[in-house]
Design goal:
Length: about 55
């Protein structure tokens, strides 16, 4: 799979509702930097840390 933003191979792929999108490492980090101020990212982190111990 190819990165959604460039021609590099995707390092990460996410699928939802039958749509699959891939991102290379640099573009994934750039998107996370853009979203890090949103509350949902902190909620996701809390959820992932909680699931780790279930």
């Amino acid at each position: 799979m190819q990165c959604h933003y460039c021609d590099d191979p995707a390092d990460i792929a996410v699928e939802r509702g039958g749509v699959k999108v891939g991102l290379c490492g640099p573009h994934f980090r750039a998107r996370m930097d853009e979203l890090k101020d949103d509350a949902w990212l902190a909620d996701l982190k809390d959820e992932l840390e909680t699931e780790r111990f279930d």
